[in-house]
Each structure stands twice: as C-alpha cells, then as structure tokens.
Amino acid sequence: MTLALPTINKMKQLADEIGLDISNEELEIYQNFIGNDLRSIRKLDLIADYLPKVKYPRQNNYETLPSHNPYNAWATKFNVKGSGKGILKGKSIILKDSVFLAGAPAKNGTSILEDFIPQFDATVVTRILDEGGEIVGKANSEFMGLCGGSHSSDHGNVNNPRKKGFSSGGSSSGVAALVASGEVDMGIGGDQGGSIRIPASFSGICGMKPTHGLVPYTGVMSMDPFLDHCGPLTRNVFENALLLEAIAGPDGIDSRQINLKVEKYTNFQTNNLKDFRIGIVKEGFDTLGSEKEVDIAVRDSAKKLSEFGATVEEISVPMQSYVAAIYTPIVIQGIARSMFWSYGTGVGRDDQYSGTLSEKIKSLLMQPNQLPETGKLFLLEALHFEKEFGLSYYSKAMNLARKLRKSYDNVLSNYDVLIMPTLPMKATPLPSNDDPIDYRITKAFEMNGNTMTFNMTHHPAFSLPCAKINDLPVGLMMISNFFSEKTIYQVAGQFENIFKWEEVK
C-alpha cells in the first residue's frame, strides 16, 4: 500500500470537508507532522501480520459454480477434512459465506467480495475440524447479512426446499436450505437480528442463537459487535447441541467472550418436564404482520408441554412492545459505523482484524450503485440519523436495551423457558427483481419483530418447527437465561421426541 504525503491542496480539501478555516502556513505545519507519522507507519510494512495459524491443510479444489445447486444455496463447494476423530466425525458441515476459511472465497452475498480470500480460518472452523467434522463448502447468504428474506444476494435468490419459489429466510439462507434439504448434515450461521432463527423457522429446522459471546466470532464478518452471534443450524435438537458443544467456549481473541459458562450440551435428555416452568410471552403474539394460524399453532404447541409435566402459563413482558423502537437506531447506526464506515472491522476492540477485508469493504463503499436496495437504505438512513441527531437516539436505545434485558431477566428468574413465535408468519413467496423496491424491502425486514429482541438482550434463543401449514413450517422460539442453552435443549428435545411437527396441521 502506498502511503503518500497529502499535498497542501489535498490538506485544504480535508480541512474544508470538516469545516476548518485554516491558512496554508498552518497547513504546512500539520503536513509536516503527518509526514512524521507516515514514516512511522511505514515500518509496519517490514513485519508480517499476526494471524492465527491454519491448522489443517487443504487443496485449492474449490468449485465456485457448483453443477448441482437446485436451491441456489451453494456459494462454493470444496472439501476440508479434519482430525478424523471427535464428536463430529462423519458429519458434513456447511459455512455461511461470511465465515472465514483460509484460501476459499468469502463473498457474503456480494459480487464486490468475489476475490476476497481470507488468510486464516475462523475459530469455529478450526474447532469443527478438531472434532472430526468435514467442511464441504460455503452457502449463499444475503448481501452483507442485511436481509431476513432470501432475495438480496448478488448470486441470486435462495429457494426454500420445503416449497420452491418461497423464501428460505435470511440472512443464513443457503445454510438453512442445504441443511433442510438433507444435502449437508449441519451448518454454521450468523445472527444479528434473527439470521439463524429466521431461516430455521422458514425452512423447518433447528437454529440456535447462543448467549452473546458463547461461540467465538473470530474470523466471521462482523456487522456490529453488540449484535453479533454465531451458532448452529441442524435438522434435529441433538445435532444442534452436538455442534454447539464442538464450537462453544473462549478462544482468547474475541472480546465478546466474558465470564462464559460452557456445558456438555448433549447431556440434556430428560424423561419428563415436571419441574419446568414455561412462560408464554403474550406480547410475542398478534404482532405486526401476524398470521393468526401461526399464532394459534405456536400457542397450542406451547400449551401441550403441560402434557409432559411442565407448568405452562401466559405471562407479560411489556417492554417487548418497544423492541422495534429500541432496535432501530442500534441496528442502523451500529451496523453503519461498524461494518461500513469502519470498513468491516470496527475499532478499539482486542479482536482479530482482517486488513484485506477492510480494503474490500472500502472498495464496496466506493461502488454504492452496485448495492442492493437494503444496503442503500441502511447507508441513507444511517447518514440521515448521524446528521440530524448524532448518537442521541442510539445512546438512549442502548440504555433501554439494558432495561429490556433486565425485564427478561426478571421474568426468567421465575421461569426456565419462555416461548413465542419465532416469526409472525410462514415463509413467503420470493419477490422478483421486477417487483417494486418498496415491496422487496418490506420482504427483507417484515419478519424479525420477535427475533431481534434477543440480539439486544443477549439471551439464548432457539427456533424449532412446531407445525406445518400448507406445506410450510411454523417456528416456535424458546428463550432462557444466560448460558442456559442446555435447559432449552431439555425442553426442545422432549418436545421433538413426542410432538411430530410435520403431522400437525
């Protein structure tokens, strides 16, 4: 990289940009100090970057245009074998295309990142390989994670394997489609507003957004460290617990990981639920866009847990009604500052950085006309917010996020698990490129009113299918205390064993 000293004319332009009225003589003084700092920075070119070592060899056998891709879910096919022993031996795992695998493209739903090749493996990748798993490829994902549907990727729509022409849910759209179709055993997704649980619900599989920080985010493209979560998508509860068991725990790099409690999640089997208290969150039903049949299916399914011995009661969390208001400035300004204006890295965190990714994100922002409508909306809205009211609403929203967390903590002090619909609706038809922009944007964000809550409170939240209506799954979401994923698996496992969702209309 060339580190050129700015000319006086350039210095003048920079001064004008930030509103400085300054003489050329003074600019020359500042120019001289900048020159000294640039000479210091150039020393960084003399030493290698400090990156995690790639533990498992791989060949450059990447198939970037897979010949078999019926749902347009594959981004890249390849094969990386792990240790040959461990709890994931014999399992095939697909990665969301935001997850780093050294040597393989990480496009994250945009053609602008086509030639971005990570230099190191994400921590979750190394852990999967350590436990004998076989990574078989990357899955198509939505543009930079900014879509709850499956229609924003530059690489085309992802189809729901349950019903062609319908959304598989985003932004981990391809992962969900490949897991649901049976092409792979398990998948790794990312979740900043529901991007694991939305596709799990639409596609009829299990998706866990763990407690914030439980799974290291090192080597996964960040949207906003406050909202970032990484977790497993699988076809059943046991395999979800198995994959979480393989990837959870501190890695010594990710600063999101504080005071973790890690368990053996697969030891969740229970014969009954007689000691469990379950709360049905009233405010999670009859929300904007709710389908009545979805609300009924989830409420009826939750009540059936009493047949297994659980105490099931309807409860109220009034703060849930304010979730959209709290989330909006956090997601708009947080993502804009972390992912866009900080070029995908953020600053001031003791994390693993990728300078090459930063360069690519910068180039993305220099081609704004190539962004999909969701990307354009985020940038325009964030810029307006910044200019009009700075961070005043963001600040208030972050404070209220703590109040929201406390409101759920208070309820969870009396209940083991809370239940609400994962989404207010079943999977919807995929919009076409010819549909109006406002319709396409609506289809990107209409479904995450419940899921976004727990990206802010940081509680674990799990989606599993509970019914099928018109061949489309209905997702039920379970929430529990921090680091109580095992408790969720206990309830979900009992539910899965006895209650056959595909038989429930």
Cα-to-Cα separation, first versus last residue: 60 Å
Rough outline = globular
**Briefly, what CATH class of the largest domain?**
Alpha Beta
State the CATH architecture of the largest domain.
Alpha-Beta Complex
Q: Detail the poorly predicted runs.
A: none
Q: Considering DSSP H and I runs of 4 or more, what fraction of the residues is helical? A: 25-40%
Question: How many DSSP-defined strands?
Answer: 13
Quaternary state, please?
Answer: single chain
What's a quick, concise take on this entry?
The protein is of the alpha/beta class. The protein has helices at residues 8-17, 24-41, 123-130, 173-181, 197-203, 237-247, 292-304, 323-340, 355-365, 373-389, 392-412, 437-445, 453-457, 485-498, and strands at 74-81, 92-96, 134-139, 159-160, 163-167, 186-191, 206-209, 229-234, 277-281, 311-315, 417-421, 461-469, 472-479. Helices cover 34% and strands 15% of the residues.
What is the fold's blueprint, element by element?
Blueprint: H1 8-17, H2 24-41, E1 74-81, E2 92-96, H3 123-130, E3 134-139, E4 159-160, E5 163-167, H4 173-181, E6 186-191, H5 197-203, E7 206-209, E8 229-234, H6 237-247, E9 277-281, H7 292-304, E10 311-315, H8 323-340, H9 355-365, H10 373-389, H11 392-412, E11 417-421, H12 437-445, H13 453-457, E12 461-469, E13 472-479, H14 485-498
Parallel strand pairs: 2-3, 2-6, 9-10, 9-11
Antiparallel strand pairs: 1-3, 4-5, 6-8, 7-8, 7-12, 11-13, 12-13
Helix pairs in contact: 8-10, 8-11
